[in-house]
Write a structure and sequence with these properties.
Number of domains: 2
Strand order of the largest sheet: 3-2-1-4-5-6-7
CATH topology of the largest domain: Rossmann fold
Distance between the termini: 32 Å
Shape: globular
Oligomer: single chain
Largest sheet: 7 strands, parallel
Structural class: alpha/beta
Order of helices and strands: EHEHEHEHEHEHHHE
CATH architecture of the largest domain: 3-Layer(aba) Sandwich
Number of helices: 8
CATH superfamily of the largest domain: NAD(P)-binding Rossmann-like Domain
Helix content: 40-55%
Bound molecules: 1,4-dihydronicotinamide adenine dinucleotide
CATH class of the largest domain: Alpha Beta
């Protein structure tokens, strides 16, 4: 308990999947959690659940690809809780599973707008608050696909590779301000994103077994496996960790 007591944490894409598990765990460990997402009903329900269990949370609608929304929401979180200690850049989308020569500019840009621009905008508006407060922790969602390729979605891989090096660059830029920036690299995790992907493959159970078998540990991960890694990077236990890649993948990239 209380590993992140009274830290103000913004989680993007916090209403579902890994983001949701992260919000629940950080609130349980004492954080004030700004749950942000485009899924308003799910986000509000999650906040109520957290509060009913004695946690502190509030919901904001936030599409991370819209800079004006990011600026507004981060200003409001600061007004409500007075600081931003931790930013979890979790929001991300997949899709565009076609070869490079068939992808339109619009398809490419729509994925980059969320997975890359979203991380940029949220980092941009968290940094001044963290500098003023004397430090902070930014946790960016890359993927195993920011480390190795796969013959499916070119923009997804490009976006996750970009996030990996945005993290290292920002780690170096803001180390003097005591702002730590790290990337997280999950293997396949059972979430709505992966469920949608599996449904596109036809028989879900067969496709699931195939994905399970790619992980030497024998199965996909679940959202809590990642949330515990986020908790470590959000807490002061990781105060010497910056510019690092936290790989949580059941051995996929080993
Ligand atoms: P998910 O699709 O289950 O949940 C993503 C959440 O982000 C949803 O609540 C969704 O509404 C929200 N979101 C989507 N677009 C948004 C936008 N424009 N602005 C704000 N929120 C938005 O995804 P999942 O699986 O939980 O993934 C979370 C992160 O982890 C993503 O960045 C994903 O790329 C990454 N990841 C996931 C893996 C997996 O196997 N599930 C593996 C490696 C990385």
């Amino acid at each position: 308990m209380n590993r992140v007591k009274d830290k103000v944490v913004i989680v993007t894409g916090g209403a579902a999947g890994i983001g949701k598990a992260t919000c629940v765990l950080l609130a349980k460990e004492g954080a004030k959690v700004a749950v942000t997402d485009i899924l308003n009903a799910e986000g509000k329900t999650l906040v109520e659940d957290i509060k009913n269990k004695g946690g502190k949370a509030a919901y904001w609608h936030l599409d991370v690809s819209q800079e004006t929304q990011v600026e507004k929401v981060f200003t409001e979180v600061l007004q409500k809780w007075g600081k931003i200690d931790v930013l979890v850049n979790n929001a991300g989308i997949s899709g565009v599973n076609k070869p490079t020569h068939e992808i339109t500019e619009k398809e490419w840009n729509s994925l980059m707008a969320v997975n890359v621009n979203g991380v940029f905008f949220c980092t941009k508006y968290a940094i001044p608050a963290m500098i003023n407060a004397g430090g902070g922790s930014i946790i960016n969602f890359s993927s195993i696909y920011g480390l190795v390729g796969a013959a499916d979605s070119p923009p997804y891989h490009a976006s996750k590779g970009a996030v990996r090096l945005m993290s290292k660059t920002d780690a170096l830029l803001y180390a003097k301000n005591h702002i730590r920036v790290n990337s997280v690299h999950p293997g396949f995790i059972w979430t709505p994103m992966v469920e949608t992907f599996l449904k596109q493959q036809g028989d879900v159970e067969t496709a699931r077994q195939k994905l399970d078998s790619l992980h030497p540990i024998g199965h996909m991960g679940d959202s809590d496996d990642i949330a515990y890694g986020i908790l470590y990077l959000a807490s002061d236990e990781s105060k010497f960790v910056t510019g690092a890649e936290l790989v949580i993948d059941g051995g996929y990239t080993a």
